[in-house]
Amino acid sequence: PIDGALMMVAPYPDAWDIPEDVEKLVIPVDHQLTFLRYFHIQPDSAHRGREATLSSIGRSFWWNNLARSVKKFCKHCLGCQLRKKSGDQKVGRLRTSIYTKPFSALGIDLIEMPAGK
Fold first, then answer.
1. Are the C-beta atoms of residues 33 and 70 closer than 8 Å to each other?
2. At 61, phi and psi to the nearest 5?
3. CB burial string 24-52: b at 16+ within 10 A, e below
4. Which letter, b or e, does each residue of 71-102 get, where b requires 16 or more Cβ atoms within 10 Å of its Cβ?
5. What is the reported pTM?
6. Would you put residue 75 in left (φ > 0), alpha (ψ -120 to 50) or beta?
């Protein structure tokens, strides 16, 4: 708990393996847009979809009509509208890896090279 903050006890979203409820910080109306922007437009993942944005916010935070707020925000997001693909395309669940120190991960491309002279 955070001193002086309003908390709500609610189920943990999208987690069938976590049986207990969790405390979520209640976000005042005048701060909700800041949270929507932060969780939807993340530097490492561009514009996240409605479900991903809702899931990220809903894990630790709550406000009345949260799902409706996320839906409306994503629907009116100019960046999403400009990049929106036509059709019903499925998107993979790739996540950007964040490395904290050099050489914590290495990648090698193996390609056949022409013989030298």
1. no
2. -130, 160
3. beebeeeebeebbeebbbeeeeebbebeb
4. eebbeebeebeeeeeeeeeeeeeeeeeeeeee
5. 0.60
6. alpha
Q: How far apart are CA 58 and CA 72, in angstroms?
A: 16
Rounded Cα distance, 4 and 19, in Å = 27
Residues in the chain: 117
Other residues' Cβ atoms within 10 Å of the Cβ of residue 111: 4
> What is d(CA 40, CA 21) in angstroms, rounded to the nearest whole number?
25
pLDDT in single tens digits along all 117 residues of the chain: 567 778 877 766 555 555 567 788 999 999 999 999 998 987 765 778 888 889 889 888 999 999 999 999 999 988 888 877 655 556 667 677 777 788 778 888 888 888 877
In angstroms, the CA 91 to CA 5 distance is 37
